[in-house]
Amino acid sequence: WGSGSVLEHPEQLDEPLRRYARDCAGGRAPRCTDLGFALEKDDPEQAASLYQRACSAGDGLGCNNLGAAVAHQDPARALALFEQACQLKESWGCQNRAVLQAQLPDGGQR
Q: Distance between CA 101 and CA 54 in Å, rounded?
């Protein structure tokens, strides 16, 4: 995508993903998560940006997916994102929070 976002250049996407991009740009947070998931393998940075947008707009799955994307580099941030997902009633966030807490030496406590 170069330096641009798929939301700025949706014409680069096939039609189903263009619809996700339009919906995401229009404020439908779950569509940002869907688009991020579709792009994750080929463009993880773009996917993370879309997950962040979704999470900031209250989509628990977006928070969970962003947490998974950053877990290896920043476990503390991932834990916070999983907690946010859990608070938003996303069961994957609750599960991932518990798994990550069990893996951290101090359980994620500071």
A: 24
pTM, rounded to two decimals: 0.87
Instruction: Give the angle subtended at the CA of 75 by the CAs of 87 and 51, to the nearest 5°.
Output: 55
Enter the tokens of residue 60. Answer: 């628990």
Of 33, 37, 31, the closest CA to residue 19 belongs to: 31
Residue with tokens 């030496």: 105
- Give the count of beta carbons closer than 10 Å to the beta carbon of residue 16: 11
**Which tens digit of pLDDT belongs to each residue from 55-105?**
999 999 999 999 999 999 999 999 999 999 999 999 999 999 999 999 988
| Residues in Cβ contact with 32 at an 8 Å cutoff, skipping those fewer than 6 apart | 20, 24, 50, 51, 53, 54, 57, 59, 62
Q: Which among 82, 74, 84 has a CA at the least distance from the CA of 98?
A: 82
pLDDT at 5 (0 to 100): 76
Rounded Cα–Cα distance for residues 82 and 62 (Å): 10
CA dist 29 to 24, 56, 71, Å? 6, 9, 22
